[in-house]
What we know:
With 503 residues, the protein is an alpha/beta fold. The protein has 19 helices and 15 strands.
Amino acid sequence: MVVGPFASAGRLAQTWADxxxxxxxxxxxxxxxxxxxxxxxxxxxxxxxxFSTDLADxxxxxxxxxxxxxxxxxxxxxxxxxLTPYEGIFQLACGTTLGTSGGRERLTLDEFDLADxxDQAxxxxxxxxxxxxxxxxxxxxxxxxxxxxxxxxxxxxxGGGFGAAALAAVAPARLRRxxxxxxxxxxxxxxxxxxxxxxxxDGTAHWHRACDTPxxxxxMDGDPWPPAPGLLRSTAWEATPLLSGAGLVGLFxxxxxxxxxxxxxxxxxxxxxxxxxxxxxxxxxxxxPPRDDDPPPSQGPGDPADAPDPLRxxxxxxxxxxxxxxxxxSARTSSHLVPIVDDTTGAVPGAASLQTVIDLLERPPRAxxxxxxxxxxxxxxxxxxxAAVLLARHGRLRLRRRDGYVHRAPLLRDLVPAGPLPADVxxxxxxxxxxxxxxxxxxxxxxxRAALLAQVEGSPWVLPDRLRAVLADSRRMLADxxxxxxxxxxxxxxxxxxxxxxx
Length: 503
């Protein structure tokens, strides 16, 4: 069994299972997840492996959640590969192969060669001198291959960003653009900045159902994007491949500048405007590297070495949460696919682009029962990533600044025929806006806030007095929206101890 959206990429972009040899594998750029569970077989040296591309096939209604994963979720930590919220159930990381022999499991980690990836891209894009032509040919090749089995057009998710605009510019005849509108402040402005011909469907009703009913999933499972099949029925595109331009901006922006001290004010004057304040420090402090006598940064809500501040977002989360989730947080490591930094040059060209793709492919799994569609990530096509590596090796992905702010993805901007678009919100900003809208609607009534306090009463993970003070102040609720959303979702999915003493 072999699954993958790009046929020509081979095992690099495929997920496979071979019962004859007893191996499961996921390519370094595979977009298809594979979950597995290993149990004892009938013989003394036999192991049984249950696997599926759907987590619900392995995690049944009686499967118990891993307490460490619940604590990490409440603290805002993401599950690193290969962990899942269920103890004993794992998912394959990109570039790994699982084999069972002699009553033991063995994970094989494949190496990733960026130079070879760039050579593969050059065979497709040729050797044009214009970097825009390299990018245009790589994107067109990826779109054509994603739609090779349909022979018709595909659906492109358009949120108003440069990634979708660039894909629509290089393959206008093969893509139908789709936007899921949401009645959320600031996000609803996207509808007014879309290009002509974009079909808009309303996902507000789906969002309201997620806010008004106990949502048994992760904090963002109620997001109407990617869309559920029901949202596409009105468009007659339900069976059409869905493509996404997510990650393209980060892929072709380039790595951040090397941190260092701004010794004179001349560079600031050449920017035509003061640079923005970073991380809550004055402008001069943002350019200064950390010193030995600087206090260590806080590790987040509930850090045992730093007592939670009652006025800080998430200050009502007990330090016991960090202790309970240490089994998850201590498992976080960098991907074996990302090349190690070269001490002679300070960076490996293309490593930042690869990290952008790996972060999207190895995102946390959705909750069982979440049937939203998984769009094809064009940025994960080997030719597209190879083009980014090729351009990075020739210094074409330098990070640029204008008026003190980062000028992101200039190559993608030049592909858009209509010129520069208004600034769009980042994925992190979108999550914050959705969290604020969720909390505003979910906890608007005093009865719901009282019910939440009663639900977590007696929990060692929550400081009730501080939580009560936050819920009594609407401004603090908005400032603490992300943590409150995680609490609502976690308490609904895990009503018993330690998240709460009542069901």
